[in-house]
Amino acid sequence: MSNTPHTLGDEFPDQMDQIHALKVSSTRFAKLLVDYDAVNDEIHRAETNIAPVSQDRETELRKQRLALKDQIAQALAENA
Predict the structure, then answer these.
(1) Burial tier of 38 (Cβ tally within 10 Å: 0-12, 13-18, 19+)
(2) Domain spans of the chain, in order of start
(3) Which pLDDT score, from 0 to 100, does residue 23 have?
(4) Residue 80, Cβ density class (10 Å: 0-12 exposed, 13-18 middle, ≥19 buried)
(5) Which of 24, 29, 46, 58 has the fewest CB atoms in 10 Å of its CB?
(6) Which InterPro entries match (predicted)?
(7) d(CA 33, CA 70)
(8) Per-residue pLDDT of the chain (80 residues; tens, 9 = 90+)
């Protein structure tokens, strides 16, 4: 497993201005960002054994992160 953080800047490097604009204009989008960061941080802590979790829990977290990333990408596309 990779222990490289999947920050939004890494995932959407060319869309950070758009992410910031949506964050301040949409509470729904801002919540997606908070949720993404929380799940991403938990995955990173698990991968680095700071806060180990079961393999099943880590898999579930990865699925959650992917679903949140998809929702963020969709919101960015809809507001392009």
Answers:
(1) middle
(2) 14-78
(3) 96
(4) exposed
(5) 24
(6) DUF465 (IPR007420), DUF465_sf (IPR038444)
(7) 12
(8) 555 678 999 999 999 999 999 999 999 999 999 999 999 999 999 999 999 999 999 999 999 999 999 999 999 999 98
Contact 46, 6 (CB under 8 A): no
What per-residue confidence (pLDDT) applies to 44? 93
Q: Quick check: 5 and 40 in contact, CB under 8 A?
A: yes
Q: Which residues of 42-78 are buried (b: 16+ CB within 10 A; e: fewer)?
A: bbbebbeeeeebeeeebeebbebbeebbeebeebeee
